[in-house]
Amino acid sequence: MENYFQLQDTQYYYKESNLHDFGNLPCRMDGGLVFLCVSGTAVIHVGLVENNITKNKEAVILPGVVFRISKISEDFWVKMFVFSKKIYEQSVLRLSISFSKYLISAPFYLLPEDSDFLKEAKLRMEMAELVHKERKNAYVQLMQCNFVQDYFLYLYDKCKSILEQVEKQYSVKQKHFYAFLSLLDKHIRTERNVAFYAEKLFITSRYLGKITSENALGESPKELIDKRLVLEIKVLLQHAEPSIQQIADDLNFPDQSYLSRYFKHHTGISPSEYRSEIKLR
User: Does any domain span residue 6?
Assistant: First the structure.
């Protein structure tokens, strides 16, 4: 697994943490997690989108998402529950595809102080801890799956009206922009051609360029593709295995040398140097 929250032999667990172990390294979630910030602040990047985390903010990080934490205050603390991809898929099977897409594009929610939403979020974390403690219960797997499913059903019910409002508020270009980011997450390991993504969106490459320029501070589709690919390489380099040659193969680079030149061009250091820096942290 390439994520920090390695589930190992369990499908679910509860934890309280300051997340300092993340450092500034990008991570891919093999499973998913929900956390509630109870103190402090942090800056978390989900894919290419930056988010400021403050007290009473709830986060939903889905399986397969790449994220990193660039800043954490000394008093930052969260309560969270972590679940496997299998549990997630079972939980959202009856829900709309647009719901998952919405959670990826808007994974953070600030819950007003003294609101029912915040009270319910705190209560859910208490329930998450209780489920975690039932590890010796003969029906624990069913309890875990039911708890996660109940959470997403609750969230879906609260988000239905928001989903409709968001879709109305987004311009056509904004919808295409977030769809482009979603496609990058899905295809970045094999596709780096702007035309490929434009075709998937049923628009021209030129129009895609206008979309990213307006929604990503003037950046081109190619620049966003490069950023996302470099992020993917960094995730893979965080472990002794696979080798750089294997990474080149997995990401469809012609060879190790080509990957090394590409990575150094965008980061200023070679893949080997980046891997060495990680070991020193």
Answer: no
